[in-house]
Amino acid sequence: MNALSLISRLFRAASPRETLDPLYRAIVAAGRDPGWYRDGGVPDTIDGRFDMIAALTALVLLRLETEEAGRQPSVLLTELFIADMDSSLRQIGIGDYVVGKHVGRMMGALGGRLAALREAGDRAALTAVVERNIFRGEAPSPEALALVSARLDAFRTELAAKPLDQVLAGTLPDHD
To answer: Which of 2, 69, 109, 113 gives 20 to 30 Å between its CA and that of 119?
Structure first.
């Protein structure tokens, strides 16, 4: 690396999307929490992990849309989600030719979760969304379904109470 390249990397301003990296990393960390899989019975598979990250991303996007100042960050967060899904697909060996189709389906899934979670005003409605979107219609047990629903409901409630600047900085509710 030459000196000019090093200097430009040190002094360049972070892109607006990069400023949301801590938030996206926090969402992914929350989605990878072993409790979802161990205690909640979410399948510990690529699809199960996608479902958890998509659900949490959707809840954060819904929180961001509640304030005018959250609108642009919600677009950037969605872009980070897309870039991560694209990269993940490539890492597991999905070829360039079909990555776009897979990413398109993942975006459709995120959009579906956004719509479903936006409409899920109470715990019963949220439980139905969880069963359909996280367990894909086959919850492992009523207790597991109740646990995942309760945790997502608590996450949603606590997220709504957090100031926008804290959310944007990646300070999410504890996911225990």
So the answer is: 69
Among the listed residues 95, 70, 90, the one whose alpha carbon sits nearest the alpha carbon of residue 20:
70
Return the closest-CA partner of residue 134 out of 161, 152, 108: 152
54-63 pLDDT, tens digit each: 999 999 999 9
How far apart (Å, rounded) are the C-alpha atoms in residues 98 and 114?
A: 25
Nearest by Cα to 77 from 176, 154, 172, 157: 172
Q: In the prediction, which pLDDT does 83 show?
A: 84
Contact 65, 71 (CB under 8 A): yes
Gap between the Cα atoms of 120 and 161, Å rounded: 18
For residues 100 and 134, give the distance between their C-alpha atoms in angstroms, rounded to a whole number: 23
What tokens does 53 get? Answer: 């990250």
Query: C-alpha distances in angstroms, 74 versus 12, 59, 60, 92, 167?
Result: 23, 11, 8, 27, 11
Under-70 pLDDT residues of the chain? 1-14, 89-100, 102-103, 175-176
> Residue 97, exposed/middle/buried by CB under 10 A (0-12, 13-18, 19+)?
exposed
